[in-house]
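Re: adenosine-5'-diphosphate structure - here you go.
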Amino acid sequence: MPRTSPAPSPAAFADAGLAPVGTLAGVGPSLAARLDRIGIRHLQDLWFHLPLRYEDRTRLTAIADLRVGASAQVLATVDAVERGFRYRPQLRVALVDASQQTLTLRFFHFQRAQVERFTPGARVLCFGEVRQGQYGPEIIHPEYRLLAEAAPLQLEDRLTPVYPTTEGIGQRRIGELVARALERLPEAAALELIPAALCHEAGLASLRACLLVLHRPPRDADVAALLAGTHPAQGRLAFEELLAHHLGLRELRDRVRRRRAPALCGNQGLPQRLLAALPFALTAAQQRVVAQIDADLAEATPMLRLVQGDVGSGKTVLAALAAARAIDAGVQVALVAPTELLAEQHRQTLRAWFEPFGVEPVWLAGKVSGRARSSALAAVAAGAPLVIGTHALMQEAVVFSRLGLVIVDEQHRFGVHQRLSLSEKGRHGDRVPHQLVLTATPIPRTLAMAAYADLDVSVVDELPPGRTPVRTVLVAASRRGEVVERIREACGQGRQAYWVCTLIEEADEADAARGRSRDAQAAQVAWQELALALPGLRVGLVHGRLKPREKQATMQAFKAGELDVLVATTVIEVGVDVPNASLMIIENAERLGLAQLHQLRGRVGRGAQASSCVLLYQPPLSALARARLQVLRETNDGFRIAERDLELRGPGEVLGTRQTGAVEFRIADLARDGELLPLVQRIATRLRERDPAAAQRIVARWVGSTIHYAGA
Ligand code: ADP
Ligand code: MG
């Protein structure tokens, strides 16, 4: 495609970093479009397109010293070559080096000419990740070069950066582009957006120098630190990235705060009457949070409050009381939950609680269609006081007449955008609804600061009285029979049990879909087996592939005590509340994250009787897997578990950002850089006071194009 207009000269841009990538030699519209897909539009996006990692081709590793899982460069000679067809064509080349050990190179795609050049005795320089093969170490599809007999060996003198790429742009290409963009990197003072005095205060090194070190680590760079991500230059960039996110969230919060919200002061006494009718008294922690929410709702500025409380701490009633207050003041309330099962359960709970007061929740989930849907939509538009549902509430067709409070349960399953898109429905001019967000995922404080800087946080740090901690045990899958016996015993005493099936950890969406169906299959099989092994007991089954109505009917039966055992997939992970269930078996527990296991386990221990949780695992357990499961045995405290999970697995998993895309850092790693956050907060405050324009440019540089604030 020919260019329609000549690219403007770089000088045309006051800020060199904002020149479009099209101003680089060799970048035409089609390449620019591909770069755009990974958020690279301007020169500065290339400057800040940092290596994911580095490969070390500056030295050789002896075969005897290879470590499985690490990448290494090896110089060796061909010992034997074997072409075979086991399942599929493959080529294996055995190399030996001075250490007298053998390394196998394995190829599944190769050409005839390639095979012929591997003659015994040929010298090969190869690089790749080492795996444990059948006959010792091997590398699959290594990068390699055959060296002429006497050719002098030339190793790289710098670490090789490995950049994130996208389809159609190879590693080499992106490396060249970055290098070309770096030629236009301005001098240090022009690149720095943080004012000099603040840089000094925070002890920040020159950004320019740090960028150059990271893109082209010099020979004497601390290689080990770079590879581990702990090099000071990485710390400097991580700081700026965290600063940018934090500034962005605070800007978002300010924008919302500048808006107005209805001050909710009702006069019918609905919250008081609801409270009086509850079968229990609030815990001190619940009372404290209710007071905080009430104070927020009485203001004419929008509430933005996150309520964090461990599973079973009783957050639903807090949502109900906030809803009662809003309804009392004559506005509409929307309560949204991430799964249909959980939303349905809220509907039942709130319906029962509100029934005496003549409030009937309107139900809107994805599966509601036809006439039911149009009448629900009409009711919402006509001002129905309480609307409960799933993501379906966020659809365009849903129009409220006076939405005053949005409650989002299990926030970690939604992204910032989704939360905001719902509150947008209640916007009239600069008037927006109040927002209450509930989460059981206990987020360590450092993470909460980074992820939810736009929210006020309340913590429900007390469980309702009369709970006995869940006893957790690890049992090898080979002892399944004993576990089944245990179920028979427990159910014989009138208790109920969950049997949770999990198969694989999903890597992406497609996998997730497949994974869910494989989970469903596994659940089906387990259900048949258990029904056979436990004659006389009533065994039910729920999984994601059942129709919502079937799911609900089964859940209802379990809740009503008409089923003894419920075989389920992780669909029951969030929110399901059946107090009489006191035994939970989780299959393949080693495949799940700690937070998820803790959530699942939270389904038991809700009544007065002692509960237990059996984590079935497939031996052998790796040391890490054992360490992780051990944490669950040791504590029932979700906050401690989250802290440990963070240490063991990193923040992306803990926050569940893979699902929401809420926080994605390019270089910062909260487990590693979390300690920077207090400083980030302090510098952010100063910067916003002294130089708001610079603050905005920092946000634009790091997150400008990725977070977009949905009109908040
Ligand atoms: P979560 O915080 O996990 O959402 P729920 O709101 O589902 O917890 O509450 C768990 C159970 O505890 C429910 O059966 C609820 O009715 C009960 N509950 C909540 N608050 C109290 C309380 N103060 N005293 C006794 N039971 C309570
Ligand atoms: Mg809940």
